[in-house]
Amino acid sequence: MMTDTSLPSFFFKDLPSRQAITLKAALFLFTEKGFFKTSVHDVAAEAGVSIGFIYHHFKDKEGIARALYNCLLERINTLIDEVEMKHKKVNDRCYAVIKTLFVLTENEPQVMHFIIHARHKEFLPEEKSICSTSAFVRMRGFVFLGIENGEIRDMDPLVAAMIVYGGAIRMICLRLDDVIETPLPDMLDSLWENTWRGLDP
Amino acid sequence: MMTDTSLPSFFFKDLPSRQAITLKAALFLFTEKGFFKTSVHDVAAEAGVSIGFIYHHFKDKEGIARALYNCLLERINTLIDEVEMKHKKVNDRCYAVIKTLFVLTENEPQVMHFIIHARHKEFLPEEKSICSTSAFVRMRGFVFLGIENGEIRDMDPLVAAMIVYGGAIRMICLRLDDVIETPLPDMLDSLWENTWRGLDP
DNA sequence: GTCTATAGAGAGATAGAC
DNA sequence: GTCTATCTCTCTATAGAC
Description:
The first copy, chain A, is an all-alpha fold. Helix content of chain A is 69%, strand content 0%. Chain A has a single domain (9-197), classed as Tetracycline Repressor, domain 2.
């Protein structure tokens, strides 16, 4: 059974098509069954390529996950770039980041699952923790800036960052686990209004 | 090398000692190396028991994780019981729950890691998601009650629950990943003061 | 109940043809 | 670059003695 090639094509558009298809299949299987319960044979079968193809291009099983991880993180970074360019006020930036993540959760749950929910340290021990990743560091940076320039009440910057994004990330996790049944964008304004009330100077 | 038997003894006190030691060793290895990179032989060696002992008492490898999971969740439930009995105001209850989790994170990081951070669905597919678990449902229940009786501003109850616990859970994750270097209890009051500001009617 | 020895299967990785 | 066939090893689980 071949993976639907129309799925997250945006995320792999820089890669040769068969490698992109391979990563799509890996994303599907890794989020569905988990990294350790997915064999390289499974990925090959799902993608419709050979074992040899995979080992030639990705070196080993971890290489597939690594390529996938970097690819998706880079795209997330691009999305944050856009938010940063488009919005200057800290309130607007944080809101836009969360909105972007919420929309992504609805449209590409597998991407979000792999990025936010998977325990990378187990199968990518040498990669940086997802929280130390450029995208997440920059997200926290928006909050730090807000405290410096007085847009956010004076408080421990790290605490502020947790308040800003904690609720949203929690909602994403619960949505991916089907605990929340409402599409996240529908809850965005309520979430943000009440979150910001705690930060408004 | 035997695991330090003094570690999370509180959590296993109902079990015969060698089974408790086995679970301790499993907790150590599962959080350190991950479930899939830990073999049953590893657990046996770490605990100083035989393979046969483990298969006799836990049935299979998943059985170890399942016993561990249920054991720890039950204890967490007991802690929530205590909070519920001791505090009646919603504000106090939520604060106390978070404090309990923060203290637990510092004192028993492995317990917290296994409970909150591990992707159980991958190795315990039939168990309920951690978020659907009794303890977490009850935690959300405290918030729902607060909205009903007016202690929390009128808003979507789920959103309120995410705001209440989202920041705290996020901090726990980052603390376990060594992104946060400050002991969590030191940040508790700052976190709670600013979180509650968003919920206070 | 507890242990050791071992069976049996599956998966990661490679060799070598094309 | 791509594929198939296969090698090798590790790990789960069990059989059977004590």
